[in-house]
Every structure is written in structure tokens, then in C-alpha cells.
Write a structure and sequence with these properties.
globular; two-stranded antiparallel ribbon; single chain; alpha/beta; disordered N terminus; 285 residues
Length: 285
């Protein structure tokens, strides 16, 4: 049996002073667990916070994973959420803007804003480091992430050696006694929003239709409602067949899955990046 790769202590880049609070942006996914493990190995449990922004649309296995991981890491989960208790679909209605594979304001409202509010209330940027769960394949995203979380300094331990992939990390988590969340087992690349992330592509939604048809039906109804509210031909997905890009509704995708599955773009997968996506300023306006 392959042994878990040991954690290597490396010099960190953020410069802070005094007693440091280490805040891990905890998503309930495998890379946030691996990031937290690195942080705790270097700094211990007493100064580490696992900050979890609940979208109120998560799969049940995410909460089980959170409970198990928290117990084994020895750090409680600090849960934050939207003050109004909204989920992504309710945010879209209130913002009158349907999130899609390119821009999704649910990331800002349900993840980034509650976490920033917690950081503002409970920490000092001069003595705090924020950790995000991007890995060595995503180092190009780090400058924008760092700018997005300013004035808090940002670190991403998984971008440094030893380099491992998600499959290795999932095995290490299982070896540590944690469940393997079912979204991963069923083919999702992320463990967020119950598999209904609007940033996911056609392959994700086709999988959701097959595995969780009731979740697909709710998303399809929510998208149809938004189209009526806005009076516009908007959609979560895009159809690129024939060299042109046009809206592709979830209703149209469902019909395509049922009648013409060969027309699916199975390379259009996408995935969640709520803690690591910087909202364009013009989009926020």
C-alpha cells in the first residue's frame, strides 16, 4: 500500500508580525482539508481557524466530511453564511442576474462576503494569514487571489512541494479515517453546492440529471423562472455547436441528453472556485 506523502515544512511567503492567526478557507473539499493539514502541522491547532461559508445548498456528505475532518484535525469548523439564509438560486433572484459558467455572483455573496465580514470582525490583517486550497496546477491564479483578499496576506501551501493530485489526497483522507464524499465518488471534481455549481459545464449538469434528477429539476425550474423575471434569453450554460455561441437552457440540455446525447460537450466540465475567484468590478456593478 502506498504510504501518504509526508508534509514538508517550507518557508512561507506572507510577512506578518506578532502572534499569527491562521485562517483556512474551508470549502468541505479535499484540497481545503489538505491545506488545513499543512497549516496545523506547521502552526498547531490553537491558532488555526477553519472558516466554512455554507451556501445552504450543500450535499449531506459535505457536512459529514466536515464533522469527521474537524474531529481528526482537532479544530472546530467556524461556520458563516449569508445573513438572510439564502442559497444560490435565491441570490440570483434578488440580484436579478442568473449566474453562469463565466460569472456567478453567488460566489461573492455566499462565500466571499461572509468570510470577509468574519475576518474584519475577528482578525487583524497585520497578524493574520489566509490560506486557500489551490494546488500546484493553479499557481497562475495566485496573484489575483492575493489581490482579491487584500489586505489579508494569502498563502497556498499546496502550490509547493510535495506535489500531489486530488486522487492521492482522497486516498490519504480515507487512510486518515474520513469518508470519501459521494460527489467525488460519483465523478464530480468538487464537493460543493450539491453538485449544482453554475460554473460547472455540460458534463456536470448531465451527470446531475442522471444521479440527482430532483436537484436538476429544481435548477431547471429556477433558471426558467429567472428567464421569465428578466424577460431575456439567458441561461447557465452555453452551446458552442456549429462554431457559434448561444444560450443553452437546462431544459434544452435535458432534452438533448434524452434524445441526442452525442451532441453533449463532455469536455465542458468546469467547477467550483468560490474562494479563489475574483469578481470583475464591472460585474459587481
Amino acid at each position: 500500500m502506498t504510504q501518504p506523502i509526508p508534509i514538508r515544512r517550507v518557508a512561507r511567503t506572507p510577512q506578518v508580525r506578532g502572534d499569527v492567526t491562521h485562517v483556512v478557507m474551508w470549502s468541505g473539499g479535499i484540497t481545503s482539508w489538505a491545506t488545513a493539514r499543512h497549516v496545523i502541522a506547521e502552526h498547531g491547532t490553537t491558532s488555526t481557524v477553519l472558516l466554512f461559508a455554507d451556501t445552504n445548498a450543500e450535499d449531506e456528505d459535505l457536512y459529514t466530511f466536515n464533522d469527521q475532518a474537524s474531529a481528526r484535525l482537532g479544530v472546530p469548523i467556524t461556520r458563516v453564511t449569508d445573513p438572510q439564509g439564502r442559497d444560490p438560486w435565491q441570490v440570483f433572484e434578488d440580484k436579478r442576474w442568473l449566474g453562469n459558467t463565466r460569472i456567478a455572483q453567488c460566489s461573492q455573496v455566499l462565500k466571499q462576503e461572509p468570510c470577509r465580514a468574519w475576518l474584519t470582525t475577528h482578525t487583524d490583517p497585520a497578524s493574520t494569514v489566509v490560506y486557500v486550497g489551490i494546488d500546484w496546477t493553479e499557481t497562475h491564479r495566485l496573484p489575483a487571489i492575493t489581490d482579491g483578499w487584500a489586505p489579508w496576506p494569502v498563502d497556498a501551501p499546496l502550490t509547493r512541494p510535495p506535489y500531489v493530485d486530488k486522487q492521492q489526497l482522497r486516498k490519504e483522507a480515507r487512510d486518515a479515517g474520513l469518508i470519501d464524499p459521494r460527489l467525488y465518488r460519483l465523478g464530480w471534481s468538487h464537493n460543493n453546492c450539491g453538485g449544482s455549481c453554475v460554473k460547472g459545464g455540460q458534463a456536470q449538469w448531465a451527470r446531475l440529471l442522471k444521479v440527482f434528477p430532483e436537484r436538476y429539476a429544481r435548477a431547471e425550474a429556477a433558471e426558467a423562472k429567472m428567464r421569465r423575471l428578466l424577460g431575456k434569453d439567458v441561461s447557465i450554460l452555453r452551446d458552442r455547436t456549429g462554431g457559434q455561441t448561444r444560450p443553452l437552457t437546462l431544459a434544452a440540455l435535458r432534452r438533448r441528453v434524452e434524445k441526442q446525447p452525442e451532441q453533449l460537450d463532455l469536455f465542458d466540465e468546469g467547477g467550483c472556485g468560490c474562494f479563489t475567484t475574483v469578481q470583475p468590478r464591472e460585474a459587481a456593478a
